[in-house]
# Entry
Amino acid sequence: MNIRFDEENRLFVIDTENTSYVIGILGEEGFLGHLYYGDKIEFEDAPYLYKLPQNLNVPEPSMRDRSSFLDCYPFEYTSNNVGDYRKSGIEITDDNGHTSLQLCYESHEIYKGKKKLEGLPATFGEDTGTMSLDIVLKDSVVGLNAILTYSIFEGLDTVIRSVKLINESNKNIFIDKVMSMTMDMDQEDYKLLTLYGSWARERMMDFRDIGYGDTSIESFRGESSHQFQPFMALVQNGDSQDTGKVYGFSFVYSGNFEAGVCKSQFNSIRMYMGIGSKNFRWKLKKGESFQAPEVVLTYSSEGLGKMTRTLHDLYRSHLIRSKYKDMERPILINNWEATYFDFDSDKLLAIAKEAKNSGIEMLVMDDGWFGQRNDDNSSLGDWFVNEDKLKGGLKKLVDDVNAIGMKFGIWMEPEMVSPVSKLHEEHPDWAIQVPGREPCRSRNQYVLDLTRKEVRDYIYGRIKDILTSANIEYVKWDMNRQLCDLGSLGLAADTQGELSHRYMLAVYELQERLVTDFPDLLLENCSGGGARFDAGMLYYSPQIWCSDDTDAIERLKIQEGTSLIFPLSTMGAHVSDCPNHTVGRTTPFKTRGDVALAGTFGYELDITKIPSNDREDIPRQVAVYHKYNHLVRGGDYYRLSSYQRNHEMDAYMVVSKDKKEALITYVKVVASPNPARKILKVPYLSKDAIYQIEGSDIKVKGSTLERVGIVLPSLNGDYQSELIHLVAID
Ligand code: GLA
# Structure
């Protein structure tokens, strides 16, 4: 790992374990060029990159063909309206109403460690083992500086990029768009992989050709969203786990975003990712700066699997801060699908008692415990306990649950207000709204204008009061609608375009206060299921509710898409009752348990009412969780077979870092008559070690498992699953 500057050739070379990233400064004016990103090359050979493409010739002094240079030069970061007609990564309007911007090299600094991004979630690392580079670009006509920052971590093939804009002029500059990264490169038969979805079917994989023009994804819903994940990858060999080049881009941000690839007349492509520019406009006053969130870039020459494992390692060791990140999480039982709004303390205590007998460790009380919340039509914002339901109050319930030997957790949706609530009666102006227009309702609720400090302080005060009133050890922080009617009574006319980003900064500020004041709290983020499952939220909570779809078979797809980027330890996954409440499917209890094991693991059912066979199986599932969770949490993840792609079966494996132990989860989704044997190649173990397949007398070398594979158990019926545990004995 190193970042070096070749003074003579004016080149930056950023080396990670297996990759090089090369940036060059060209010509008198200092055009910053993206020269290379890929498999590692020799530092001494970096100047050779200048010899490659024709378009690296700087414009002649006469300036005659300046535009034909600018329109094809591989920029490291774009300018705007000065002769490059490709898509811009940055757009501004200066005080005269002009939009031209030409950013050129001014200076740079290479240093140990990594600076914090103020107010934003970001990766972090110790000074030893972390290096960064700041390159300052300048437009002296506008008076705007852009600092491009690159950081790398020891042992990881990732380059973290971000951009900071500084207004060095004497006037206001409006930022209309600021991508956190752009990158120009050659198109080499890549396809674009993105993750799309909807409520209850988040993060489905989508591969598409890259045509001429723009191919993009976005969210302007005020959150990262169910619809698109702030992630994209260029892939050479489709969904191959082991072969082909892959460039992955993951955005550490939870609000509006846009990302895409633009193919030019010369077959080059421009990648971009950043805050969504629709409805965005930021007024940057003299001397002020704007920090854009960061993007994680990773390159793999070994297919998608390596990209996944790199991102998992990065997020586990350099993004998630919670003390729980390396710990076994308490197995929880959540009452949402058990009772919905129809519960009281007696019902909860009955669930807690039965759960305790089965080895479950925490009761989570979901929506409906406050105000007059007996359905989803009222009371958000009224964070006062409903004592008709919780007789004797919250503290009494928590004490009683603790007396049973269970921990206690609670659900909150702090960002919202119901039109029917005391809070809205008292402060109708606290909802995000455009004066004169009735705000659009979604799930019969409005979004609080958290850009206003008094609103934030009030809401945080309520959260803090609730959490200090009893021994509450877990919070599920929900967010059940998306933003629209963007208007804040706290913002001036020329800063209304700041609302969505300021809203996100406010959510981050609230969660920062929460985890600072309550360092022992286990926080789980959630948004109508998994609409805010993104790297930004992981900075605050070590786990996120993956989807409201708890059906084991649908979860195979959802969890595959999620685990493409995020560690298994972050995926909220529960066993629920059948027929499943979302899709009406009935699956074996064992399969539900085996699938939920790939995440944080818990239950979402009325344990007092489920069939006794299922209830009696819970202690076994609990034991399996305790036995394997260290592997799921800390191991390397390998995708062996994808139900999302083959519509028949699913298989994945976690392998301990020392390769001494592995767990394969196999789910046969569709039964077939008179089936052929199924052999699964297992190429990811230690070749020389001898593995015993638990429960059998089979002992076999890793190299044989790679070449020959294992025969999968022939399971009878649809939706059957098996766990296969391999232990190195020699
Ligand atoms: C969202 C969550 C659910 C549940 C409900 C409560 O949909 O994803 O798990 O908490 O809200 O209203």
